[in-house]
Amino acid sequence: MTGAGVVFLTTFLAAVVEAVEMVTIVVGVGATRGYRYTLIGAAGGLVVLAIAIAVGGIALAAIPIGPLRLVIGSLLLLFGLQWYRKGIVRVAARGFAGYHPQELQEEEEGPPESGFDWTAWFLAFKGVTLEGLEIAIIVVSFGASAGQLGPSILGGAAAIVVIGATGFAIKGPLERIPRSFLQLVVGTLLTSFGTFWALEGLGVTWPQSDGDIVLLLVFYALSAAIFIGLERRARRRLLAVAQS
Amino acid sequence: MVVRVADAVGKFIYGYIFGDDWMVAVVMILALVATGLLLRAGVNAWWLVPVLAVAMTGFSLWRRRATIARTA
C-alpha cells in the first residue's frame, strides 16, 4: 500500500503543474474582461471537476484492485511517459525557468457595459475544465490505485487553492514556478507508479516488493538526467552548425 | 453540438493515451502484453516494461532531434 504522504505529494505536484496554467488563464481573462463573470465561469468549471472526481471515485471504488491497477497503472504509465519526455525536452532547453504564458487571444470586442459577459464566463469555464480534467483523472486514478482517495483529492485541491491564492494575490510568483522541472518530476513519479501498478495488476512479483517503487524512481530519474545531458549536447551542436 | 463534444472527447482520449508520439504508446502496450505472456510461460519479466520505457523515451527524443536537424 502506498503511503498517504506520497499520494498527497504526487497529486499536489501534478495539480500544481496544471493549476499554474489554469489560474494564469483565469487571472488573464479577469484582468482584461473583469473578474465578476470570470470567477462565475471558473467556479462553474470547478463544480464540473468536483462532479467528475466524485463520479470517477465511486465508479473506480467498485472495481476489484487487481484489474483496476492493471488498467489505471497502464494509463498512468502511458500518460506519465508523455510528461517525462516533455519534461526532459523542456528542462534541457530552459532549465529551471518559470512558465511564460502565451498571450491570451485579444478579443475583438471588449466586455459588455451591462448584462452577462458570456465570453469571460466561457473562457474561464473552458480554462478551468480543460486544464483541470487532467488533474481530476490523476487524482481519481492515483488515489483509487493506491487505496488513498482522500489524500489524493486533498493533494489536488490544496494545489488549486495554493496556486489560486498566489495567482490572485500577486501575479509575479506564478511565472517563477519551474513548471518544466515540476512536469519532469511528476512525469517520473507517474511513470514509476504506473509501471509498478500495471505490472502488479498483471501478476508480476517484484523482487523487493514495495521497495521496488524507489528503485524505479531512481532508474527513471537517472535516465532522465542522462537524456537531458544528451539533449543539451545535441542543442549545442545544432547551434554551432547554424552559426558556422 | 453532440458531434463537436464527441470530437473533443475523442481528441482528449487520444492525446491522453498516445500524445505526440504514438509509437511510444504502442510499444509500451505491446510490452505489457508481452510481460503477461511471459508470466503465463513462468517468466517473471518485471524488467521488460521499465527497460523499454527508457529505451522508447531515448528513441523518441532521438527521432525528435533528427527531425529538428533535418528541418534546420
Question: What's the SSE blueprint?
Answer:
The complex is a heterodimer of chains A (244) and B (72).
Chain A: H1 4-33, H2 35-61, H3 65-94, H4 118-146, H5 149-169, H6 172-176, H7 179-202, H8 211-243
Chain B: H1 2-17, H2 22-40, H3 48-71
Protein described:
- The complex is a heterodimer of chains A (244) and B (72).
- Chain A is mostly helical and 244 residues long.
- Chain A has helices spanning 4-33, 35-61, 65-94, 118-146, 149-169, 172-176, 179-202, 211-243.
- Chain B is mostly helical and 72 residues long.
- Chain B has one domain.
- Chain B contains 3 helices and no strands.
- Chain B has helices spanning 2-17, 22-40, 48-71.
- In chain B, helix 2 (22-40) packs antiparallel against helix 3.
- Chain B is flat.
- The mean pLDDT of chain B is 90.
- The interface between A and B is medium-sized, with 36 and 32 residues.
Key features?
heterodimer; A: 244 residues; mainly alpha; 8 helices; 0% strand; B: 72 residues; 3 helices
**Major beta sheet summary of chain A:** none
Assign an overall shape of chain A: flat
Distance between the termini of chain B: 41 Å
Low-confidence spans of chain A: 103-108
Poorly predicted ranges of chain B:
none
- Structural class of chain A, please? mainly alpha
Largest interface: A-B, 36 and 32 residues
How much helix, percentage-wise, in residues of chain B?
Answer: over 70%
Strand content of chain A: under 5%
Question: What sequence of helices (H) and strands (E) makes up the elements of chain B?
Answer: HHH
Summarize model confidence as the mean pLDDT of chain A: 83
Count of the domains of chain A: 1
- Tell me the number of structural domains of chain B: 1
- What is the approximate shape of chain B? flat
C-alpha-based Rg of chain B, rounded: 17 Å
Structural class of chain B: mainly alpha
Describe what is shown at a glance:
The complex is a heterodimer of chains A (244) and B (72). Chain A is mainly alpha-helical and 244 residues long.
